[in-house]
Amino acid sequence: HCHPAGRRTQLLKGLPTISTVEENAAAGVSLCTFNVTLSPLSPEGVAILPTIVNSNPLTAAFDIVQKGDLEYMVVTTGDPVLDYETMPKSFDLQIFVEDTTGRTDLKTLTVRIIDKNEHPVFRGNMAIQTVTLYVLEGTPQGRIYQVYATDPENAELKYSLVPAPVPFLVLENGDIFSTKVFDYEKDQHSYFLNITVTDPGGLNLTKTVNVNIININDERPYFTTKQRIYRIKEEQGSGTLVANITAKDPDDEDSPSRLFYSIQSSGRYFSINPSTGVLQVTRRIDRDAFPLRLHPNISVIVRVEDSPSGGHSSEMEITIFIDDINDNSPECNPSTFRKEANENMTAGTFLLELRNYCADTDIDPSNNRFNFTGLSGFGSNNFALESAVSGRLVMTESIDLENPANLGVEVYSLTVRVQDIAFPDYSSNSVIFPDIIHIYIRIKAVNEFFPVFSNLSYEFNVPEITKVGSSIGRVSARDKDWPPSVITYSILAGGGTRDYTNIFWISPTEGDVKILARLDYETTQKHILVVQASDQEKTATASVTVNVLEVNDEEPFCSPNFYSFQIPVSLAVGTNINGFKIECKDRDSDPRSFRYFINEGNVNNHFTFSPSAGSNTSRLILASRLDYENGLDTNWIYRLRVYITDDNLLSVRDKATHLIKTGTVTLNIRVIPNPTTVVATTPSFTVVTKKENLYSESAWYVPFIITLSSLLLLGLLGYLGFLLATWLRTHCPPAGKADDVPL
Contact at 8 Å (CB) between 199 and 153? Predict the structure, then answer.
């Protein structure tokens, strides 16, 4: 590379010279080798090593390095890189050296840069790094980028793509085009394009372009859960897991999907976790209640979305079947029954079919079956359940209420248990007991027996003076039926008189016989009644004989009972006055029972009756002489009150206890004086009328009314006195006050 310039003696041997070097030479490339020749006078060596003291143009691209003891090389430094196209084509390097004797030498080395076909060079980002491009999926085909390279020789460059089978192409001008519409979910997510630029000399440079396909939200999420039908039991607690719904979003294939779940229908029973898709029970599900009783399946539409608002979504319908459990015990309505059965019903008589009144609301037949057991209670041995399934209650034996073993029993109290056949699946927080049915069976008495009187016939002796309304006796009848029948009494025949249809009355319930009218022995001495006893269905009769007992209840009746006549004053003692006699009759007394006495008007006892007792006839006799002359007598007219009693035959003791009746006769006697006797009297005759107020004991109301009237009168007088006192107190001021104003 070095060519000597002349033959002069010099320190720098091999210089000056001209050397060439290719552009872009690496550091350390030798351009020229020269030696330093020392004079024998300077054995110590070189004082100043060969040095490039100047370059034209100035550059730091060259340097001198020692090769041997006194041999040196000019080499490239690599900094800067020699570039034929941008740097001077030639450099003059002045090399200086000095030995220890002070001799110096300065020679020039001319370095000429030789052009070399260099590789093209990418510009921009391609020159310093791998370019990464991002293309949204779904972007239409077209230009996505342009690469740019230069050639140091300014030659025309061409671009190519390796490998070829990719959905991209590079035009010769460096434009990169996509040749398809990318789908992130179907295509590759990243492409590495090796872009090669080549100059006309065949030199090339390859750089990589990384094309990443960017995923966008353009896909609907889809359900990965394939199951569409689920089954759960009813009455599950809140929070019970039903299904775990899962879905996937194709846009999130490389990462967990962020999806949102919701229920679009039938949200009444279920809820879904919006983040996890867990479907669970939220409220009570009763298979036995409507509408699930008819339609046990629930349709739920689940929606999945890839955004809480908007975005893409998908829906899926799932069906949840609700299975019945035995969670209901049978119930009976009513649970209390009251039945009647006639006594003496034959064994096997049907009474009640309980199944008609009981039901189990569980819908599944295997859960709603039940039976009837445990017949118990008072008298349960008389009854039986013919079938545990039907609950058919029948009598096992005839019941006779008149049987001493059943006496007094009218109602039998029974209990029956109704319970599930299947094992119960009741909730743990409730205690379910078998339903208890109460049955009350009343044995209805049958009228089997006729009433029977205590006597076939009755005889009552009744005094004829017995008061009206009095009870004269009682009849009694009963039958053998149990409970005892209600017996009513009535009079069928007998007891009538001329004036009354029936003078007797019988109490319908007590059997007391009473008289409705006064009895009269003298008219009828005996009454025969036909009395009936009835238990509303069956009857019996008995005869009642009422013997009317005679009682002295009739007054003597005498004729005449009033008479007026005149007698002379000189009538002899013992004379039957005017031949007058009375004749008496008594319907209930012997003619010998009469007794006669003058009770009133017999002044000086001038008159008497003879006989005075023992006969039904008696004469009026003058018993003593009339004496007007001596003044013993002054009455010229006598009004005699004659009493006739019927007690002549009674002893003194019997008179105190027996009833005695009295008849009366009134006589007016006028004494006629002698003709010589002057009597200043006016002839006349006197009629004596006797009225007796005889109180009848049957008229009990008379004293009551009188007493009540007296009390009312006294009360009225007291009230009037009170009003008068009040008026005086308010209108009459107290005396003694000066300023009082007189009324």
Answer: yes
Containing H/E element for 281? strand 278-281
Which segments of the chain have a pLDDT < 50? 1-9, 428-431, 677-695, 735-743
Q: How far apart are CA 453 and CA 457, in angstroms?
A: 8
Q: What is the pLDDT of residue 110?
A: 94
Instruction: Retrieve residue 679's tokens.
Output: 């009597």
Give the separation between CA 492 and CA 525, rounded to whole angstroms.
20
Among 150, 34, 143, smallest CA distance to 85 is for: 150
Cα distance between residue 118 and residue 151, in whole Å: 7
- The residue assigned the tokens 């609700």 is 322
**Residue 143 corresponds to which amino acid?**
R
Q: Rounded to whole angstroms, how far apart are CA atoms 175 and 145? A: 6
In this predicted structure, what is the pLDDT of residue 739? 42
- Residues whose CB is less than 8 angstroms from the CB of residue 148 and which lie 6 or more positions away in sequence, other chains included: 122, 123, 124, 126, 174
3-state secondary structure 414-465: EEEEEEECCCCCCCCCCCCCCEEEEEEEEEECCCCCCCEECCCEEEEEEECC
For residues 395 and 347, the answer to whether their CB atoms sit within 8 Å is yes
Per residue in 185-205, pLDDT (tens digit) is 888 889 998 989 998 888 898
- Residues 592/575, Cβ–Cβ less than 8 Å: no
CA pair distance 57, 54, nearest whole angstrom: 9
- Which domains does the chain possess? 12-114 (2.60.40.60), 121-214 (2.60.40.60), 222-323 (2.60.40.60), 331-444 (2.60.40.60), 452-549 (2.60.40.60), 557-672 (2.60.40.60)
Q: Are 509 and 534 in contact (CB under 8 A)?
A: no
CA gap 155, 151 in Å, rounded: 6
| Lookup: tokens for 421 | 């056949």
Task: Show the tokens assigned to 252.
Answer: 């999130």
Query: What pLDDT sits at residue 697?
Result: 53
C-alpha distances out from residue 720 to 48, 711, 713, 717, 725, Å: 177, 14, 11, 5, 9
In this structure, which amino acid lies at residue 176?
I
**Among 544, 509, 336, 309, CA closest to 436:** 336
Q: Note the pLDDT tens digit of each residue in 384-422.
A: 998 888 889 998 888 877 777 766 677 889 999 998 888
pTM: 0.46
Q: How far apart are CA 449 and CA 539, in angstroms?
A: 10
Q: Identity (one letter) of the amino acid at 634?
A: T
Bridge-based pairing of strands 562-568 and 662-672 is: parallel
pLDDT of residue 41: 57
Question: Which ranges in 636-743 belong to alpha helices (H)?
Answer: 652-657, 701-731
362 — phi, psi (to 5°)? -60, 135
pLDDT attached to residue 426: 61
> Which structure tokens are listed for 739?
């300023």
Backbone angles phi, psi at 207, to 5 degrees: -130, 155
- Please give the pLDDT value at position 615: 87
Q: Which residue has the tokens 């008179």?
A: 655
Residue type at 484 in one-letter notation: P
CA distance 169 to 163: 10
Q: What are phi and psi of 581, to 5 degrees?
A: -140, 155
Contact call for residues 168 and 211 (beta carbons, < 8 A)? yes
Q: What is the pLDDT of residue 37?
A: 85
Q: For the sheet with 512-515, list strands across it.
A: 471-474, 512-515, 504-506
Name the 3-class secondary structure at 731. helix
Distance between CA atoms of residues 482 and 474, nearest Å: 23
> What DSSP element (H or E) covers 125?
helix 125-128
Cα separation values, 396 from 361, 379, 384, 399, Å: 32, 11, 6, 9
